[in-house]
Design brief:
The protein is α/β, with parallel strands linked by helices. The chain is about 30% helix and about 25% strand.
Amino acid sequence: SAPGQVQVIVQGRVHGDVKSSARSEQEYLTFSLQIIAESLHLLRSEYEIIVLEGAGSPAEINLINQDVANMKAAHLAEAPVLLVSDIDRGGALAAAVGTMMLLPEQDRQRVAGFVMNKFRGDLALLEPGLALVEERTGVPVYGVVPYLEEAYLAEEDGVALDYAQHNSVHEEGCVRIYVIHLPHISNFTDFAALSAEDDVTLIYTNDAADLHEADAIIIPGTKNSMRDLLFLHELGLDKAIKQQAKRGIPVVGICGGYQMLGTLLQDPQGSEFGGEPTTLAGLGLVATTTIFHQQKKVVRVQAKAQLTFARGLEVEGYEIHMGQTERAAGCEAAFMLDGELLEGACSVNGNVWGTYLHGVFDRPGFRRAWLNLLRERRGWQPLGAEAIQDRAQRFDALADAVQEALDMPALYRLLGLSGPKEEKA
């Protein structure tokens, strides 16, 4: 979307763009609460327990009247509220007390307790501070979740990339993978499994000079492919990527990055530019043309790789995009979806490939095949596909840690449940 406006997604589909103004904000507030109420009704028809996740602070004094993501949603759901603080960033105890002071009385009454997250250190040193929070607010702290160093859990928001270490220091024996840090980057969790591998240094950058050190370059997903394509031009990243591809450095595009790899991007309805029809030349590294539409495609898929280095290996993931991409005659597909549909594209030499599949690197077999391709270019021996814990195992480990850290009987009582039955000895 253009500066000063946001794209509104309703129940997984694009609803339209909203420009900031007093009138539009009031209309948006009314509309949003209606959609939230409808969604709650739909969910309650299928599920017994519903968890509503807020966003940011529920007590931002300049936004509190328009904030539909936090307390207004809680009131609609008639739900108790837990305030969760990231204690690793500092200021969590002050934020807990300050939030309660700033909330209107009806919102304060709905807050049932606090949870402190990502704590490092000796819990005994924190406990006096927790006692003060409870004393100042009259609200209990339900527990302190530790910082899980080896969990390999993806951050929930791209703002976390701003705190990541972006430097050119590479560990010995590691292949160097650079991900372009686009202004509208999305779905950056696609690369969590890569960064967790012991022989990978993964760095986000928007410095063209960095790419000369790359063993591979990834152009990630984006909320606005055409604006971020212009960003590549402005910083000379387009030239650097094409130079490296010409040298044989593998280049991968995921979703919006895949669109940018192509020959042409067409936006006849102005979906990417706030209603202004636009056509841009892509990087020209694969022979594809993308046309943007108002309707967003959202689907889960399973696929088998058609790429030379991983032919027949299985991957799975999801598509969520507005563009439709067509391959030119003679351009080979990268994957076969569900046994019949061809998807993605690759260059003639196979070093450059793109796909709409988010999560394409999550399967250890495919991931290791690609990494071994990078190792082979270095003259290094291939490694086996010993997987880090898969996603389900990592979430199970998180659940175990949270269960141990929190006062679960009290939380069950909030839900009107008696909790799990004790196993008999």
